[in-house]
Amino acid sequence: MEFNTNFILGCSAIGAGLAVIAGIGPGVGQGIAAGYAANAVGRNPGAKSDITGTMLLGQAVAETTGLYGLLIAMILIFVKPLAK
Amino acid sequence: MDMGILLSADQEVDFMIHGIFSYSFFGHQVWITTTHACCLIVMLAIMIFGFIAGRKMKHAEEVPSGFQNVVELIVEKLDGMVDGTMGKNGVNFRNYIGTIFIFILVSNLSGLLGLRPPTADYGTTLPLGIMTFVLIFFNKIKYQKVSGFIKGLCDPWVFWAPINVIGDLAVPISISLRLFANILSGTVMMALVYGLLSKVAYIWPAALHVYLDMFSGAIQTYVFCMLTMTYISDAMGTE
Fold it and tell me: For chain A, which residues lie within 8 Å of any Cβ of chain B, measuring from their own Cβ?
């Protein structure tokens, strides 16, 4: 069955939109990390710089899965692998 | 149709890598791209700074002032970061970590000057990830010997070895993709703002630049170096 290029591009756009739903997970995870960091600073204000560094590192690692979704979306929209 | 998938852009949305000129290398067509050019500009800037700093430090004063202060501050901060993370083994890695830190940081910030950041090209970040991988592997063999390496490979059980191999190979890929995707997303978003909203894009995009280029770039630089150091000191083991 032969598909129209425009149809494939439209479906790619829908797929890209679905792919960036991956952003939900990192959002929740980073929020939890920031919440616990705030908690920790409240308990021990002296260790603020250490806590901030650890929090940012953990958040950046948690962000990776969301970035994979973003990359898939960008590849679908701009490289158009399915429309070739 | 080319950009029809986007909104009606009144200006071409442009964040791709462009070829500047191509040449023939043993029968292959090789392109010199904007990434190479921006990388060279970044390297040139760092080299000039390093040259001036080196000359200045030859005639260092007892009580530092002005430029010497800045140079000493940078070196002290970088050394402190490496020593704080790697402990007593940090001395051997100050040079490497400091070098990649400065390179990645200046590359990420070069988006502010209208360059396309070299780190927004997977061809730049993958070699950085591979260098990290080689360092991890080398230090594992050096400090834990081959026996410890094999023991670590079959950690809970012998049949876990393939999973451990995949876990080891995922390190350079994830570390390079993280840097690449962060900087690329910043570049793409700024290109979209300037391309689609070019009529109203005055002054307020500066706030986006602060977040997407400076904050994100600095955080990702820090994260890349921290992860590299953590993995390396993990590979050394705790003696």
Answer: 5-6, 9, 12-13, 53, 56-57, 60-61, 63-64, 67-68, 70-71, 74, 77-78
Residue A46: CATH number of its domain: 1.20.20.10
Q: Which helix (H) or strand (E) holds A57?
A: helix A48-62
Residues of B in contact with A68 (CB under 8 A): 177, 181
Q: What is the Cα–Cα distance from A62 to A25, expressed in whole angstroms?
A: 9
pLDDT digits (tens, 9 = 90+) for B80-118: 999 888 888 888 889 999 999 999 999 999 988 888 899
In a domain, B3, yes or no: no
pLDDT in tens, B127-156: 999 999 999 999 999 888 888 888 888 878
Q: What is the pTM of this model?
A: 0.86
| From A53, A56, A70, residue closest to B185, measured CB to CB | A70
Domains contained in chain A, number: 1
CB contact under 8 A, B178 and A64: yes
Residue type, B18: H
- CB of B3 closer than 8 Å to CB of B191: no
End-to-end Cα distance, chain A: 15
Domain that holds residue B228: 64-112+125-236
Q: Which residue is closest to A52 within chain B, CA to CA? A: B219
Per the structure, the complete domain to which residue A73 belongs is given by 5-77
B residues 161-200 lying closer than 8 A (beta carbon) to A: 174, 177-178, 181-182, 184-185, 188
**DSSP state string for B36-88:** HHHHHHHHHHHHHHHHHHHHHHHT--SS--THHHHHHHHHHHHHHHHHHHHGG
Q: Would B140 be classed as within a structural domain?
A: yes
Question: Is residue B25 in some structural domain?
Answer: no
* Residue A67 Cα, gap to closest chain B Cα (Å): 6
